[in-house]
């Protein structure tokens, strides 16, 4: 029986707005790939990201160009050669995983070679950039979240972090600059940030400026996000970053992400599993990937005004593994 591909764009409103160093957004625009074979439907979701030269229209066009290959029996191995890494390949790769699980009756975790079913994971919760008082309110509102990731930019670094720490004295803290840090301010802030208990700082400098971290004797480890997409990037990160943030939309799907996770861990990097702001369908495959990771950042649906139904179940900061009705 032949397969068909349906591509759909969807929009999910964000609760309030979500701001990082390069801008703010009030909705999450996603693209869904659906594979139909008989009565079975496999789904995958991606988030086109302008920072990487992607757009919703471009991702839709890329996916629709795969119609003939899908009809002729495209599999995950073939997809790696058909499309470059990125959001479009992610949606179709995850749809292929989901369809295979539904057709075979074998859950995706077993298809992925995991030794046991996925366990619940604890996700961090993101505090977006805002006025210090507003960030403090957000941190107080996340009192049941044991790990907070604070988005920061080039200015008012210490003022904002003091406000968050005072509002959430028991929380573990990470910082994410999204390439927006001021190097001199970051260097000067190191001792106080360490005293606050900050455990990791994600992507402080723009891609291409990473070498500046080599000579920085810093009390907090750095994690790479925008500077790492696939295994080919790992060699350039040694001596600069201790952690790598693996996102399905960057690697181009679960297939490549599993390989990258294994490679990065074997080379001594700590693992962070990240996400874009999106629905539970985007997060579900990443829950498999998050097993055993040092940091899990899969809070995207918690930032939405509404999620899809059925969605992932969040018990506070704990994510339950996805039900088959959602994915896998």
Strand content: 15-25%
Query: CA-to-CA gap between the ends?
Result: 21 Å
The helix content, as a percent range, equals: 25-40%
Basic shape: globular
* Tally of DSSP β-strands: 14
Strand order of the largest sheet: 5-6-7-8-9-10-11-12
Radius of gyration: 19 Å
Report what the structure shows:
- Helix 1 crosses helix 4 and helix 6 runs parallel beside helix 7 (157-167).
- The protein is of the alpha/beta class and 328 residues long.
- The chain has two domains: 4-106, Enolase-like, domain 1 (2-Layer Sandwich); 121-319, Enolase-like C-terminal domain (TIM Barrel, Alpha-Beta Barrel).
- The chain contains eleven helices and 14 strands.
- The model has no long low-confidence stretch (mean pLDDT 95).
- 48% of the residues are buried.
- An eight-stranded parallel beta sheet has the order 5-6-7-8-9-10-11-12. A three-stranded antiparallel beta sheet has the order 1-2-3.
Topology (elements, then pairings):
Layout: E1 4-20, E2 23-37, E3 40-46, H1 56-64, H2 67-71, H3 76-82, H4 87-104, H5 108-111, E4 121-122, E5 125-127, H6 132-141, E6 147-151, H7 157-167, E7 172-176, H8 183-195, E8 198-202, E9 222-224, E10 243-246, H9 248-251, H10 254-266, E11 270-273, H11 280-289, E12 295-296, E13 314-315, E14 318-319
Helix pairs in contact: 1-4, 6-7
